[in-house]
Amino acid sequence: KIIFTNLKAGKADVEFVPGGQYYIKGLKKFSLADGRPTEELEGSLWNLLDLAVSNDGKYIAGGGGDWGKTELKVWEAATGKLVKEFEGHYAEVTSVVFSADSRLLFSGSSDSQIKIWDLAEKKELATLVSMEEMGNDYVVVTPSGLFDGTPKGIKTILHYTAGLEVIDLEQLKERYYEPGLLRKILGYSNEPLRDVQQLGEVKLYPAVNLKLDKTTGKLNVDLSNRGGGIGRTVIYINGKEVVSDARGGSANPDALTYQVNYNLKNHPYLLSDTMNEVTVKVYNKEGYLVSKGFKVGYRSDASATPAERPSLYILAVGVSDYTNTGIDLKYPSKDAINMEQTLSLGAKRLFGTSKTTSWLLTTESNQSSLQPTRKNIISIFDSIARRAKSTDVLVVYLSGHGINWGGANGDFYYLTKEAYSASVEAYNDPAIRKTATISGAELVELIKKIPALKQVLMIDACASGKAIDNMMAKRDISSGTLKALDRMKDRAGMHIITGCAADAVSYEASRYGQGVLTYSIIESIRGAALRNNRFIDI
C-alpha cells in the first residue's frame, strides 16, 4: 500500500527513525502519517551529502560540505537539537554511519580518511586511512599518536613532518606502535589502550654524518644535537644489529655534539669479497623517535675470509611436559620433532649432509642434555655462535607456552621445561624469570652472537593455562607480545613466523594431531600448497 508519493528528489537519502512516527529528509522531520514536515533540525549544513539515524533512534548525523568547507553534525532525533559539530576532515564528508550499538559514528570523506567518533564523549577516537591504489592496505592512528596497520600501509600511507624533515610512522614504533589498535577501539578486544604521552611537536634525533676509512675499517659517526638530544646509537651490518648503543656509558645526551667510533675490520657479520651494507640509526634523548638508516658500503678483504659453501643450523625446541603438569600441552614436543625432521630432510638435499647440523630438544628425550631446559637451550645457541659464519643459515623453532610480562611495553618470555605456571603474575619475581624462561631480549642477544645473516625464527607459543583434549584449545597472543616480537625482528634482522596474526588465535587442533601453525608450515614445505613445479627456496 502506498501511503504517500510526495518525496521529491533532493539532498541526501531518506532516513526513517526506528520506532518513530517520522522520517528525515534533508534537515527536516516529516510525519509518516501524512508526509508533512513537522520540525527542522537546528542550524544548517552546507551541501548535505549523506544522512544516518542511529539504531537506538536517539541521534541523527549529517555530512556534507565541499573542498572549501567540511560539514559533520549530530542532532538529537527527538528534539532536533544540535548535539555536536565534529571537526577533523579536510574535505567534504560523503558518508556517515553509526555502529550497530549506536556508540560510535563513522564518517568518510574525500580526503581518503574514515574517522571514528565517540558519541558519549563527543570526541575523535581514531582516523583510518586507506587509498584505492593501495588495495587492502591501511593505517589507523589515534589523536594521541598510537598507530597500527598493514606493514605496507605503515610504511607508505601516512607520515608526519617536523620542519623540512619527513617522519615515517615506523620511526615512532618504540612508543606509539599499538598492535590490534582498531579492534581495541571498536570494542572487539578486552585489552585497554595504552596511555601514552600526546604526540605533539616532535623532538628530532641528532644530525648524522658518517665517515668510513675503507682501509682500516674504522667508522666515525659524528652526531649533532638538533634539540631532541643524542640518544641510543645503533649500528647494523647487513641488516643485523651489531651494537645496541655505540655511545658508551659516559655519553651526555644533552651534548651539542658527540662522536662514535666503531671498527668494522674482520667483523664476523661481514660477507667476503662483496659490498656490505653498514647502517646507523640514532634515537632522540627520550628514545621514542629514531632516524632513518644512514648507510655506507664496506667491502671486506676477500682473502681474510675464504668463500665456502654455506651451512644450515637448526634448533627445534618443544615443551609439552612442564614441572607443573597442570599446564602441560599436547603437541609442542611432537611439533618440534616433525619440524626438525622435515627441515633436516630438505636441508641435507640442498646444503649436503656435512653442511647440515640440527639440535632437537623436547620433553620426550631420554637424554638430559636434550631436554628443553633454559641451560640447554642457551648452551646450543652458544655452540652455534662458535661455529657459524656470515654466509650460513639459522632456523630456530620454539613451541610451547609463552607470556608477555611487563605490560604493554613488556617483553615476550618463552617458558622452558622448568616452568610451573603459565600465569603472568607468577613471573613477577626476576629470579623465577631467570630460571624458567628465556626473554625476547635474551633471544636477540643470543642470536646476535651468531654471525649467520640468513635467519628464521618460528614461534608457536602463547599464553595459555589450559589445553582442551578435544577439538581446539585457544591460545591468545596479546598486542604486547606482538610488539615484543616486532622489536626482536627489527634488532636481530631476522624473519619471524608466529602462530597468530594481530589479535587472532592459534589452535591446538586434534583434527591434525599437532599445532595448526606447525602443520601448515610442514605441509607447505612438503608441497601441499605448491603447484606447477614451484618450490620453496631458502
In terms of topology, how is this protein built?
Blueprint: E1 15-16, E2 22-25, E3 28-31, E4 37-40, E5 48-53, E6 59-66, E7 69-76, E8 82-85, E9 93-98, E10 104-109, E11 113-118, E12 123-129, E13 139-141, E14 147-149, H1 151-156, E15 159-162, E16 165-168, H2 173-176, H3 181-186, E17 207-213, E18 218-224, E19 233-237, E20 240-243, E21 257-263, E22 275-282, E23 294-299, E24 312-318, H4 332-350, E25 356-362, H5 374-387, E26 393-405, E27 411-415, H6 430-436, E28 437-439, H7 440-448, E29 454-462, E30 472-476, H8 479-492, E31 495-498, E32 505-509, E33 514-515, H9 516-526
Could you describe the 3D structure shown?
The chain is an alpha+beta fold. It has 4 domains: 1-129, Methylamine Dehydrogenase, Chain H; 141-202, no CATH class; 207-299, Sandwich (Immunoglobulin-like); 312-526, Rossmann fold. The chain contains 9 helices and 33 strands. The strands form 8 sheets. Strands 24, 25, 26, 27, 28, 29 and 31 form a 7-stranded mixed sheet that branches. Strand 5 (48-53) and strand 6 form a beta hairpin. Helix 4 (332-350) runs parallel beside helix 9 and helix 7 (440-448) packs parallel to helix 8 (479-492). The longest helix has 19 residues, at 332-350.
* Uncertain stretches of 5 or more adjacent residues: 463-476, 500-507, 528-538
User: Share of helix among residues?
Assistant: 10-25%
Q: How many beta-strand segments?
A: 33
Tally the helices.
9
Any idea what the shape is? Answer: globular
CATH topology of the largest domain: Rossmann fold
Task: State the end-to-end distance.
Answer: 69 Å
* Alpha carbon gyration radius: 29 Å
Largest sheet: 7 strands, mixed
Would you state the CATH class of the largest domain?
Alpha Beta
